[in-house]
Amino acid sequence: MGTAKRCWHCLEAEETVKALGSDGEKGLKEGEARRRLRRFGENRLVEAKRASPFALFFLQFLDFMVMVLIAAALVSFAFGEWADGTMILIIVVVNGVLGFVQEYKAERSLEALKEMVLAEAHVIRDGIFRKIPAVDLVPGDLVLLESGARVPADIRLLEAFNLEAEESALTGESRPVKKQTAALWEDKPLAERANLCFNGSSIARGRGKGIVVATGMDTEMGRIAALLEEGKREETPLQRRLRALGKWLIAFCLTVCALVTVIGIYFGGNIFQMLLVGVSLAVASIPEGLPAIVTISLALGVRQMAKSRAIVRRLPAVETLGCTTYICSDKTGTLTQNTMVVRHVFADGRWQPAEAYRPAKADPALLVMANCHDVAQSAQGLEGDPTEKALLSFALSKGTPTDLGRLAEIPFDSGRRRMSVLVNWQGNAWSLVKGAPDTILGLCGAAATAAGTRPLTEIEKKRLLDAAGSYTDRAFRLLALAYSPKAAAEKEMEKNLVFLAFVALADPIRPDVPAALEQARRAGIRTAMITGDDPRTALAIGRELGIESDILTGKEIDALDDKALGRSIATTGIYARVDPGHKLRIVRSLKGQGQIVAMTGDGVNDAPAIKEADIGIAMGLKGTDVTKEAADFILADDNFATIVKAVFHGRGIYDNIRKFIRYLLSCNIGEVLVMFFAVVLGMPLPLVPLQILWVNLVTDGLPALAIAMDKPEAGLMSMAPRSPKEGVFSRGLGFKIGFRGVLIGVTTLFLFLFVLIDSQNLVLARTVAFTGLVMSQLFHVFDCRSERETIFKLGFFSNRWLIGAVLLSF
């Protein structure tokens, strides 16, 4: 069964199913799917070939500084200094091994994180709905598609209900493409194959069902991927700053080392010895391992954040996270538990508890709850929107039929605020509609009562809205239900509607969110709740969460120009009845005021605001694939408290980076100053080249890496967010580096002079200077563990990795 080159859009749906040896209702059998997976391979695009472990090890020796060391070894051999040359080569190899191990582990860490965010596919196998990793899809699989989903393979559509796909990445078509199921009797260009959905595109509207015709590199996206050249890995802003810093340091250190060499020769030093000293000092003074340790630190931090349920998709976001000043959070599922339950029902003019609701047989309100939804029923239970699951569960508990034949539907979207389906009920076409109370009542001309149907006047509509408002004020979610027993066609689905009932649903707040909100406030981070709910519902939930502030609605935002909106959001912490366009305006307005904005979202229409935000956060449980693709972070548990934990870890990562910058540079400055002052003062050299290189080996690598293992300090979340424009040496770090470097250099030089004058033994004096330099640096690493607390308060043994690194270096 070949799949890649057939004209699938030219075949009828039934022919396609037959050609693929599948079943249009039950899908593939599980055993057949496994057999095809072995035959066709995983459904993934082939990535650019990564460097082999051998190549990665070889690359460690192409660094400029390492090549300088190798040149120094060759010079030593040329002058007959076999011991020196051999020791330098040993140091080069050890450095190469350390660099290889660090980079290999970092690469494996990042690859493991990628596996955590693999897309899922909704399939039917053996007649049972399943969620499987998209990589396990095979030709012939029966796939369900819904609004916001990423299309996981090339799919021939068998059903399409108002289905539109966004295919701009593949075809360049800027607007969503309307999809259908009929065969196309001639070959068409890619953009006109309306009965196919392509891997990598996304569902903009509606829902559908189709059969997989191509996977992996056989898809249209795979063919394009095969033509692409390997791209360069993106550096973080911090890495770019450090690279610029490194270039400046290299220039400065090489200048100082050249001066040491020239002055030493001028005062009668051995030319070869001074050249070797200059080269060794240059190698020791330049923090060549700094960029690698930054990457490793970020990777380690990313793994730690993943354990806290925050999955990082883009490393640059880790640095930005520590600067966050404003979090725009979704309400449902993020601040609340996303476990909606029907609590009260309003029917026939009165509210009653859900458990007391005793409907008549074949109650139309229950028929709406049971059939107007996109919930899928599987062996694992109900899958879909929490509100729709609550309605369906309630209807099932009352014995309501759910197997009505669906003739047509108009899916829910945030602009219409309602959903409608046309079903076959007892031989007639009934339209079942649910949505926001004001929207539904606006379409109703009558209301159902126990005595029959009666006309619905504007006064009665207002009375009904007042009745709904009494529950909205109490933080319930209100939905209105309506139907039409006279809808003979799709175009009549939302005409002549009869109002049936209001349903009040509750979604309790997450128990750990109020504490997380307070922690964010202490950290200088403002939080705004953004919801599509009624303003009164939003205010009630805001009060429960402790968010006391002004409220803005979508309509009010529309009435404000950009300047007025900017003034209003300064005092606003709750946004209600907003659509994705409003979210985008809110983010842009906040950024215009200099705020560093984190935006959460789950729907496909949230993607623009998430992409616009400084930090885009997608929901891992209820978020669509499109939203996850646009995000920098994915919350594996959809919990607001996880965002605050991620900010905490983000601040800790940046803090650790500053720690090892402080340590490495102050140690290197100390080494340079020891030699510089000795040469300028006409003294014997305190250290020979091998000692300089050995100090660089034992003090720079492992202790600096161990500092990156430090846990974030508890006081980090009581500080204001740092500025994203903050320099590496800000907040007094430059002074601390310089002062400690001078102290290390002067102390080492003093030890050298004291022993030399007292013993007149140059070898002994150098040994003492060497030991003193190493010990001062190993003690200094503990001083670098915090910019705010002493080592006595932190505890010497609170970082066991550092203890081990220092003992090994010692």
Explain this structure:
This protein is of the alpha+beta class and 810 residues long. The chain is 47% helix and 18% strand. Strands 10, 11, 14, 15, 16, 17, 18, 19 and 20 form a 9-stranded mixed beta sheet that branches. Helix 16 runs parallel beside helix 23 and helix 24 packs parallel to helix 27. The two termini are 66 Å apart.
Short key terms for the protein model shown above:
810 residues; alpha+beta; eight-stranded mixed sheet
Topology:
Elements: H1 13-19, H2 30-40, H3 53-59, H4 64-78, H5 82-116, E1 120-125, E2 128-133, E3 142-146, E4 154-166, H6 168-171, E5 177-178, E6 196-197, E7 202-214, H7 220-227, H8 237-266, H9 271-285, H10 290-307, E8 310-312, H11 316-321, E9 326-330, E10 341-347, E11 350-353, H12 364-371, E12 376-378, E13 381-383, H13 386-397, E14 405-410, E15 418-425, E16 428-435, H14 437-443, E17 444-449, E18 452-455, H15 458-472, E19 477-484, E20 497-506, H16 513-522, E21 526-530, H17 535-545, E22 550-553, H18 554-558, H19 562-568, E23 572-576, H20 580-592, E24 597-601, H21 607-612, E25 615-619, H22 625-630, E26 633-635, H23 640-680, H24 689-700, H25 702-707, H26 733-759, H27 762-783, H28 791-794, H29 800-809
Parallel strand pairs: 9-21, 9-24, 17-20, 21-23, 22-23, 24-25, 25-26
Antiparallel strand pairs: 1-2, 1-3, 3-7, 4-5, 4-6, 4-7, 8-26, 10-11, 10-20, 12-13, 14-15, 15-16, 16-19, 17-18, 19-20
